[in-house]
Amino acid sequence: MNFKENLKVIRKNSNYTQQQLADLLGLTKTTVANYEQGIKEPKLHTLEKLTIVLKCSYDDLLK
């Protein structure tokens, strides 16, 4: 798996919709969708927020 797939799986396992995750991160739903589709990649500070909100490690997201 890769980042986009990992993000989607972890988000769903955490019971967040794209909109809920976006709200928690201060992003738009479109941005989260773009991450999950591989259209965009998050900046380092956003990755850090993702690990905090989703209670996962960088490895969980990036492996």
UniProtKB/TrEMBL annotation:
Which InterPro entries does this UniProt record tie to the protein?
Answer: Cro/C1-type_HTH (IPR001387), Lambda_DNA-bd_dom_sf (IPR010982)
Classify the source by domain of life. Answer: Bacteria
Gene Ontology molecular function, alphabetical: DNA binding
Q: Which residues form the HTH cro/C1-type domain?
A: 7-61
Q: Which SMART domains match?
A: HTH_XRE
Cite a single Pfam family from the UniProt record: HTH_3
Check the record and name the PROSITE patterns matching this protein. HTH_CROC1
| Keywords for this protein | DNA-binding
Q: What CDD domains has UniProt attached to this entry? A: HTH_XRE
Protein name, entry field: Helix-turn-helix transcriptional regulator
